[in-house]
Fold these 3 entries.
Entry 1:
Amino acid sequence: MFSTINVIFYPKKRKSNKKNLVPIYARITLDGKRAEFSTGKQVDLQRWDVESGRVRGKTPEILVLNRFFDTLKAKCVSIYDELVRSGEFVDADTVKNIFLGNTKKQYMILEIFQDHNDEMESLLGKDYNPGTLQRYKAAYKHVSDFIQIRYGKKDLPVKKLDHGFITSLEFFLKSRKNCSHNTAIKYIVNLKKIVRIAYANEWIERDPFFHWKASWKQKERQYLTQEELTRLVEKQFDIERLQTVRDIFLFCCYTGLAFADVEKLTNDDLVTDLNGQRMIKTLRKKTKVLSSIPLLPIPEAIIQKYEGHPRVVAKGTLLPVYSNQRTNFYLKEIAIGCGIKKTLTTHLARHTFATTVTLSNGVPIESVSKMLGHTSLKTTQIYAKVLDSKLIEDMTRLRMNNIMQEQAKSI
């Protein structure tokens, strides 16, 4: 983006003294934004030429004064040129501050963002997982592209980030980057964390996100019905890899564990209570919240089936899990083999546990939340909302109750 700098001088008439001398101010204009400061000079208002922005006259004193204004303007333009050549951020305030010697460090958006991502990368496996880092790296790239396209800059001072920046970024993500609403909001929430770091360190005086609130669009959660789940349980595959992936998928359906949590399960995660009930107790990889899940017969049988599997023995894990990418790829074949038209993914198995396996069978939502390892009951309530069909089915059965029908006739 091409910019031009303009420097003019003008008198502050309201500040004249008894000798009718007024202070002369310099005004730098760049990209429609202004920055003003006093030149430290005073002139007779009657001698000031508004058009030229200089003092009228040929006396030595006046010539020296006008030469001062010319030098000041030339220095401001030189500062601007140097900033442009070096690829640094430049605006009217920046030129003014450098000229006046107020060269405090400017904290830049992408600079802070990169430092955050570098720290996150150094803590992989401790406080963060690779998926979280990948999302922040993607958010950095989107914000970088936005600044380049919208402002024609490589970076911007974090103090320049305002509510307009946020709303424009949201539009950019949806239009230029073709992000869905929720995906765009996630990236802005990532940026919000970076801004909060700047605010906490007092690099900015106010939080530009104060008047912004993330608005999420509720997506319909897909899950397998009981009929589809039964079809999957009864289906046998001749190809070993498909049979194994089918079993791992069923294990997720009947435990509610996310793929990343199943992948890391070992015998240490299996416990037996005083009544002899075997349970899985494991910290969720994503939230570090403890999931406590009593083992149903199907996942119990799957564990026993693979006890001596070579990959289980070699890795010391509970199950011979393929990578998430390969698993989801094989699940497409499995869906076709079972006549299931839904897109099977490892996460759909978790939704199936929450809906078909537990909530649909009357398991209290508090218990489901505990087994899923949710940090808030509100998260679990999302699954309860998709069960309207079950609600209608139950009420229909109640409506067909003979006693109730007879009682209705007497009203």
Note: The chain is about 50% helix and 10% strand.
Entry 2:
Amino acid sequence: MNVYRAIKLLQIEHQPLNHSQVVIIDGNGKPQAQLSDLLADCMSKIDLFTDLSTTDTSSDVIDDLHLLTPLPNDVLEEYQKILDQPIAGINVALHKNLIELIYEPLM
């Protein structure tokens, strides 16, 4: 599974994930701040400019953002990378009100 599939499939109370509720952690539970910040930025743009339910791939999201925003290509490339990032699992941290995506480093 990758980040795109996770954010597309996961819902809380039948609502899409709020970008402030999703973080990326490593296998030991340590937050990955840069990746979490990039994901939050990407998800905030998705919330504003596209509808995940109408997309089938992360490339569809990037195509929508390319058409609907003035974001430069290098930013869209970083968004594509974070959406395609493989994850090893998902942890629902109810006490923190977070969904933690467990980062799986690319080999």
Note: Strands lie at 11-12, 15-16, 22-25, 87-93, 98-103.
Entry 3:
Amino acid sequence: MSQSDLLERLLDFLRRSPTPWHAVANMAARLEAAGFRRLDEGAAWRLAPGERVYVTRNDSSIIALQLPRETLSMLRMIGAHTDSPGLRLKPNAAQIAAGWLQLGVEAYGGVLLAPWFDRDLGLAGRVHVRHPDGRLEGVLLHVDRPVAIIPSLAIHLDREVNNGRPLNVQTQMAPVFLQGGDRPDLERLLLSWLTEQHGLTGVEILDFELAFHDMQPPARVGVEGELVAGARLDNLLSCFIGLEALLESDGSQGALLVANDHEEVGSASACGAQGPFLGDVLRRVNAQLGEAGDEGFIRLIQASRMISCDNAHALHPNFPDRHDAAHGPAINGGPVIKVNANQRYATNSATAAMFRDLCREAREPVQTFAARADMACGSTIGPITATELGVPTLDVGVAQWAMHSIRETAGGRDVASLTRVLTAFCNRPQLA
């Protein structure tokens, strides 16, 4: 596996995945190109040992399964999430101020707001339309050019701005969209973009879920290109690494990749980690290929392991005091095991030991992150999945800076490093 080729695939994936729906569509395309068969949740499933299949829910969450060639007795599970913090349009978004058509937004997740000012913004998401024959359809929209901006207020009009000022998404962050525009112009423009991208004519827009995205493309940064900078590294980077590992594995063992939507807002949805998506899929698969009944399902879960992948806070050279001195992971220092005594991360000594042994096997370094005792840490799908299923779980990730910013930074070498470790996980015959 060439690191340069791997990073080029990553940059392309980030460019083409401005929303969870686009990310899932792009992941599904790669799975199908590799021979995975799409399953429909609303249809009866017919599964065969050794088959490779995938299924989506809400078009924003996806599960890919590499079924074992023998009886299903354990699964090597990799978890990630498809959503990222950002600014999403409100349903009645159009508003007029000072001769400008602006679009009202709300914050999705814990957005780092300041970096959103003065950025070239595109628009992307999902639009549901009614065709002239009455048929309803959901289509993806990706306006891949600058159509909006959130201008800063000049320092001359706010002399205290550099002393710290709270930002109000409702009153201060509506992007400017069209000079002299009126409310019907938004629907007119959406219809024209749908015609341009999908050839749709005569359709009526019924509803949409749209978000702004940064138009600056992802890039390799640094004198030696040692960094990767771009939007939505949290957590499309983990989705990409998990997918690469699954596709790179030898196919000899039962393995699964799940990428849930809605992690950034708590995971409580039909397609989130707190919802039934993963459990539904596992029960259907076990009913056909495993030991039948509740007893068989519990045995499958307890024999399996879940590695929840979500990025970790790298030691920041300008703010070293924000880390515990013994637990500040370095960018390009290898995968990071995330630990929290209060179960904000699902890692325990048994699952951590397994991961350390995988790193030894893959000849990759390993690091540990634990937050300062006087600071709260975030969480992941790891504890939620462990709670819902009971599967032994740990949390790991790639170290990154600027988590939840419009542009985040991680290490290029770490991408290949974690991919190799997860590939070894997918290939490992025994998990205990």
Note: The chain has a mean pLDDT of 96.
